[in-house]
Amino acid sequence: xxxxxxxxxxxxxxxxxxxxxxxxxxxxxxxxxxxxxxxxxxxxxxxxxxxxxxxxxxxxxxxxxxxxxxxxxxxxxxxxxxxxxxxxxxxxxxxxxxxxxxxxxxxxxxxxxxxxxxxxxxxxxxxxxxxxxxxxxxxxxxxxxxxxxxxxxxxxxxxxxxxxxxxxxxxxxxxxxxxxxxxxxxxxxxxxxxxxxxxxxxxxxxxxxxxxxxxxxxxxxxxxxxxxxxxxxxxxxxxxxxxxxxxxxxxxxxxxx
Length: 257
Fold this sequence. Notes:
It holds the Pfam family PAP2. InterPro entries: PAP2/HPO (IPR000326), PAP2/HPO_sf (IPR036938). Keywords: Membrane, Transmembrane, Transmembrane helix. This is PAP2 superfamily protein. There is one protein chain. The protein is about 70% helix and about 0% strand. With about 260 residues, the chain is an all-alpha fold. It has one domain (about 1-55, about 65-255). α8 (about 195-215) packs antiparallel against α9. The protein is globular and about 60 Å long.
């Protein structure tokens, strides 16, 4: 359950929605996620509040105790992504969509407390801050992903300085640059021609993400290369449909039934 608020799961979810459902709305939420990551890193570094002591963890979890604890990144990210999807897809008036998003955010948040990596206050503030951040981004971006990524870039630079070059800060900076470049091509991306093409886009996209994440372990100690790699990752997610759209293969060109 806690992984549903982690970077990998949320990135894959948003990428699949972008490739197969609605590009502009999904790109908007991706911009929220990248901007939110930068804001969260700055807040964590500024407050510099510790996590609970290690002896309260029911099971040892490698890497879960790194960094500061307040506010909770998982609770914040879950609120930004799941709440952002409800807002971007115009489902704010649907009680079922609101209940589903609220349940996911609550379960992710409580999982962090149960695992002993956050205090209850960490996750409450993280979730509340995430909801407020979505509301603010909705108002400022007015549905334009490019504006969202411009905000992400503006937040990522100070986050990089404050957080001291952490990997998450590099992801925020590179993701903002890649998103800003890729989102400018949204209007010229070709529409999916068939269900088969949608499946091919999904397979190619997942393979591309896996390739980039594999390269991440090779260049992990070189900060400039990591920023470039993360920029390629986000821009590439946006451009996968264009690459597959260039393939002139009969079955891919069949219109949907």
